[in-house]
Amino acid sequence: MKYYAYIGTYSVRGSKGIYLAEVDGNTGEMRILDEYEAYNPSYLAISGDRKYLYCVLEAREIDGRYGGAAASYKIKEDYTLELVSKAYTGGTDPCHLTADKDDKRLFVANYSDGKLTVFPLEDGVIVNKPVIVGHKGYGPNKERQEGPHAHCVALEKGERRLCVVDLGIDKIIFYKIENNSINEDSAFVTEPGAGPRHVVFSQDGRYAWVVCELSSEIYAFDLRSASRVGIYKTLPDNFSGMNTCAAIRLSPDGKFIYASNRGDDSIAVFRIKEDSAGLILAGIYPTKGKTPRDFAFSPDGRFLYAANQDSDSIEVFSVQDGILEHTGKSVKIPSPTCILFLDNNGLQ
User: Fold this and answer.
1) Pick from 2, 122, 99: which is nearest to 53 by CA?
2) Residue 105, pLDDT score
3) Residues 166-170: what's their mean pLDDT?
4) How does pLDDT run across 307-319, given as a tens digit for each residue?
5) What are the phi and psi torsion angles at 159 (to 5°)?
6) Is 181 exposed, middle or buried (0-12, 13-18, 19+ CB in 10 A)?
7) Residue 348 pLDDT > 70
8) Which of 11, 267, 272, 274 is the residue whose CA sits 20 to 30 A from 228?
9) CA distance 313 to 287
10) Model pTM greater than 0.90?
């Protein structure tokens, strides 16, 4: 069985932009097939119909205009890409995006100025008529929280609300989106200075887990009761030094939460308690490289691929009951920042 993956990067050390890779489903081996020139395509998303790939173009200024942009690509039958459109976000350093399942809207988080950008979509074309919502506030970390920093956009299960995670103001904000109106519905807050970064939801949509970049913690929330369940450290007890968390993923079987540590250069694995959002630490595993900004599971859940941004490699691990074991396989790629898997049935 073969799988395919798209890899986003930062445009440094010779990176071309977006890479297409083929993966052997039996051995986990990854092989680069093609590359597509783009500037800082640091995060990728897929359309609901699996026909289009979207990416951010992370910049403070692009094409002589303020802010960054988002681009869309047609996914051909052989998984190669063809550029379809580009639109400007009106916000600086767009770093995360997602599309709704009906392919009507594209949501983009702009990190540096804390703006949410919502684009209309028309058959994979990003229509350059955005609605922009700005966050306000700041946090106690004067270097990292001098203002709002939207870092993640994610739709709840059922897509009733949009969740925007803001590192700069220590908030996870939920918006209701009806027609062309975007209205704040509710919010969770972390402890001051935690710096929430990314969110994942349980398969039934009841729970949410948020990884906090600055405090190296995972916050667990019960969405039905709108309550905090617990806070869980991602680092070993004997760790000393600087660390920032990056990615958080729910395992394909829905039983584990994984989060990456940049500094400890590891992935922390937590078993999810039954009938609860509570977590139990199952292990912390080195990623065999520097600065694991992202990681992803193969579609069958047998392998995990860790994108080590600062050592220019993607390392391959086998996965069994939450345990990671390095396979000895890796692929060299400049500054990998995002991995998005497909199989013959679409996105995984």
Assistant:
1) 99
2) 96
3) 98
4) 999 999 999 999 9
5) 55, 35
6) exposed
7) no
8) 267
9) 10
10) yes
